[in-house]
């Protein structure tokens, strides 16, 4: 792979003592999380006093530091899962539980060529970039420039630089994919969009034989339509569908019970593999069932107007500014530019609600 497509050599450090420019997650006495960017001479202010950045800089990861009023704060370098749950959002993110399944079901590997549509707020792109490594290539597609801006800012903020093995194309996947990749050259495709069935034929052309298609689908009606669209091409294995539900447990002494809150349904995952050209998938022997349907039945079951929820332009502009500011601070800190962390570096882990 040429030098201009290789990933940057120096991403933000993920281990070692804290230093100026690093992000740190502080857990206060009541369990409240706040993420700040460290800068010499600065103070993180709370209603219970402050935490001097210099009291954190130079300390090992996972240290306890004292605030100005004597309160104890646990200082941890944020994990990627922490970052994606608190970063600015233009669109709803793919949650870590689903991202982990996508990496596993898609069998992501170092050096893979991956297509992602759409990019949303950049959460999945970060997981994919980590999985494919510097020798891989990620092509992300997004219809809206505002979402692309938010995603670019978030990815740059976390990595400290914009990866050279990542491209973001603004436009319709059906129109842009044939010009971005050669036929049969893509190892994995992830579709996270309102109507993925519209892109199946073009995805089939781009995938290499044996390549994996993964669709992240929000509703049952969409799930049915995507499955039938995959089958109709005759170019994929039988689609497999699942959802991931995570339930935490409270374990303290003999008080062992499920948590009162859980991350339940967020979306469905459907996977299928590209068949070799001119290959006919063997028919499975099954009992006869009432599965016949017409195009009118499909449209009645999954109407074209699915009621997509969109963020307001004002909210998108705000998220894009926040992501860009975070990215600028990250790049400036990596370049050791004085004053890299401008006012506003303190970032509560509220996270914009999904839209």
Distinctive features:
five-stranded antiparallel beta sheet; disordered C terminus; alpha/beta; 355 residues; Rossmann fold; 16 strands; seven-stranded mixed beta sheet; single chain; Vcp-like ATPase, Chain A, domain 2
Secondary-structure map with pairings?
Blueprint: E1 23-27, E2 33-37, E3 43-46, E4 49-52, E5 63-66, E6 72-76, H1 80-86, H2 96-105, E7 113-117, H3 123-132, E8 137-142, H4 145-159, E9 166-170, H5 173-180, E10 186-191, H6 200-206, E11 207-217, H7 220-233, E12 240-243, E13 249-252, E14 255-258, E15 268-273, H8 295-301, H9 313-334, E16 347-348
Parallel strand pairs: 7-8, 7-10, 8-9, 10-11
Antiparallel strand pairs: 1-2, 1-6, 2-16, 3-4, 5-6, 11-15, 12-15, 13-14
Helix pairs in contact: 2-3, 4-9, 5-6
Give a verbal description of the structure.
The protein has 355 residues and is α/β, with parallel strands linked by helices. The chain has two domains: 17-78, Vcp-like ATPase, Chain A, domain 2 (Roll); 82-276 and 293-301, Vaccinia Virus protein VP39 (Rossmann fold). Helices cover 28% and strands 23% of the residues. The chain has nine helices and 16 strands. It has helices at residues 80-86, 96-105, 123-132, 145-159, 173-180, 200-206, 220-233, 295-301, 313-334, and strands spanning 23-27, 33-37, 43-46, 49-52, 63-66, 72-76, 113-117, 137-142, 166-170, 186-191, 207-217, 240-243, 249-252, 255-258, 268-273, 347-348. The strands form four sheets. Strands 9-8-7-10-11-15-12 form a seven-stranded mixed beta sheet, sandwiched between helices. It has a five-stranded antiparallel beta sheet with strand order 5-6-1-2-16, with no helix packed on it. Strands 3-4 form a two-stranded antiparallel sheet. The longest helix has 22 residues, at 313-334. The radius of gyration is 23 Å and the shape is globular.
């Amino acid at each position: 792979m040429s030098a201009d497509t290789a990933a940057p050599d120096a991403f933000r450090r993920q281990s070692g003592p804290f230093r100026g420019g690093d992000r740190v997650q502080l857990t206060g006495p009541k369990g409240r999380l706040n993420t700040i960017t460290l800068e010499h001479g600065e103070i993180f202010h709370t209603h219970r006093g402050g935490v001097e950045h210099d009291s954190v800089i130079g300390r090992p990861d996972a240290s306890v530091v004292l605030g100005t009023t004597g309160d104890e704060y646990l200082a941890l370098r944020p994990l990627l899962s922490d970052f994606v749950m608190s970063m600015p959002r233009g669109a709803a993110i793919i949650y870590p539980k689903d991202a982990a399944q996508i990496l596993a079901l898609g069998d992501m590997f170092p050096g893979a060529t991956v297509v992602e549509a759409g990019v949303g707020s950049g959460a999945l792109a970060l997981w994919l970039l980590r999985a494919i490594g510097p020798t891989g290539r990620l092509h992300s597609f997004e219809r809206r420039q505002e979402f692309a801006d938010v995603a670019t800012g978030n990815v740059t903020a976390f990595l400290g630089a914009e990866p050279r093995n990542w491209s973001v194309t603004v436009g319709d996947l059906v129109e842009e994919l044939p010009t971005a990749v050669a036929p049969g050259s893509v190892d994995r495709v992830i579709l996270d969009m309102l109507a993925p069935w519209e892109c199946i034929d073009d995805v089939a052309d781009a995938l290499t034989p044996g390549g994996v298609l993964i669709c992240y689908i929000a509703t049952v009606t969409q799930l049915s339509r995507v499955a039938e669209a995959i089958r109709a091409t005759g170019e994929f294995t039988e689609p497999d569908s699942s959802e991931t539900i995570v339930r935490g447990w409270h374990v303290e002494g003999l008080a062992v019970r499920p948590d009162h809150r859980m991350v339940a349904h967020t979306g469905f995952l459907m996977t299928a593999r590209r068949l070799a050209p001119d290959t006919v998938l063997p028919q499975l022997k099954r009992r006869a069932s009432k599965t016949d349907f017409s195009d009118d039945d499909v449209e009645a079951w999954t109407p074209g107007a699915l009621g997509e929820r969109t963020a307001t332009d004002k909210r998108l502009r705000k998220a894009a500014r926040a992501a860009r500011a975070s990215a600028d601070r990250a790049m400036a800190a990596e370049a050791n530019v004085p004053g890299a962390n401008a006012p506003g570096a303190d970032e509560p882990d509220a996270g914009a609600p999904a839209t």
